[in-house]
Amino acid sequence: MNMKKVLITGGTVFVSRYVAEYYVQKGCDVYVLNRNHGVQSDGVKLLLADRHVLGDTLRPFHFDVIFDMTAYTAEDVNDLLDAAGSYDDYILLSSSAVYPENAPQPFTEETSAGPNQFWKKYGTDKISAEQALVRRVPNAYILRPPYLYGPMNNVYREAFVFECALKERAFYLPKDGRMNLHFFHVHDLCLFMDILLEQKPKQHIFNVGNAETITVRDWVSLCYQTAGKPVSFIEVNSGIEQRKYFSFYDYDYRLDVRKQKAFMPVTKTLEEGLRESFVWYLANSEKVNRKPFIDYIDEHLAP
């Protein structure tokens, strides 16, 4: 890949930070656009600005690609495009939240986007961001992942389970634990973006994710195994809202990722990916945005 100069929106937290460090390691000239509210990664060049008040910050630059990792609304996209100088390619990180929960599954790229009762405004805002980009940059690439995971994940998902495991707690399982979760490792996200920029497929919207989903029970078991601890389960069947004591909505969905798989047949296994996540968590647990799941369990569910 002959990419030299890249712009990454964000750059200080999870996905955008991982992407920035990935391209630094590839030898690219990496610029990050943020308000300098977090620690910057080594090797990046900071463009200090709010993406809604850019002025001439971006005008002098030509970027081989813009990785827009932090656009959540049409305004986010339009303000960046209005202020951008020149660029060759544009990749937007969208979300599988754009699919209505009542549409046939697995969701394909041809599934009509629409409101989702679980994701609510987040999902409809992502739809508006996609639409704004397609109108103005028809050749841009749009990626729709499920749950992203891996090193630098500050969201209280696998970190919550690791914490329960290390404290040797029984795990309070939503119902029978057969709900499916769909994941995609952040490193695989970077690899697929490389493929898009190298091969320039005619298709411009891609679902991205592992080929297989995993049940909640099996995922929690794998997290405990990764932490080197045995797991015991207590099933919660009382009708309590799941998000009060667990990291995910009571929402079982699957993405059809065959079009991604045609370009990238192999993705990182969950076993390998969770090992990487655990190593990062052990060294960076203070960076995780904890939620009071354990407190709620101890107060409302524990005997």
List keywords for this structure.
about 300 residues; alpha/beta; Rossmann fold; UDP-galactose 4-epimerase, domain 1; 2 domains; seven-stranded parallel beta sheet; two-stranded parallel sheet; 9 helices; 13 strands
Task: Report a brief summary of the structure.
With 303 residues, the protein is of the alpha/beta class. It contains nine helices and 13 strands.
Element layout with pairings:
Elements (H helix, E strand, L loop, with lengths): L4 E5 L4 H12 L3 E6 L10 E4 L13 E7 L5 H10 L2 E8 L26 H17 L4 E4 L2 E3 L8 H9 L4 E4 L5 E2 L1 E3 H14 L5 E3 L6 E2 H11 L6 E4 L21 H6 L6 H15 L8 H9 L2
Parallel strand pairs: 1-2, 1-4, 2-3, 4-5, 5-6, 6-11, 7-10, 8-13
Antiparallel strand pairs: 9-12
Q: If you had to describe this structure to a student in words, what would you say it looks like?
A:
- The chain is of the alpha/beta class.
- It has two domains: 5-149 and 183-207, NAD(P)-binding Rossmann-like Domain (Rossmann fold), CATH 3.40.50; 158-181 and 213-251 and 269-301, UDP-galactose 4-epimerase, domain 1, CATH 3.90.25.10.
- The chain contains nine helices and 13 strands.
- It has helices at 14-25, 74-83, 120-136, 158-166, 186-199, 216-226, 258-263, 270-284, 293-301; strands at residues 5-9, 29-34, 45-48, 62-68, 86-93, 141-144, 147-149, 171-174, 180-181, 183-185, 205-207, 214-215, 233-236.
- The strands form four sheets. A seven-stranded parallel beta sheet has the order 3-2-1-4-5-6-11. Strands 7-10 form a two-stranded parallel ribbon. The chain has a two-stranded parallel sheet with strand order 8-13.
- Helix 2 (74-83) runs parallel beside helix 3 and helix 4 (158-166) packs across helix 6 (216-226).
- The protein is globular.
- The mean pLDDT is 97.
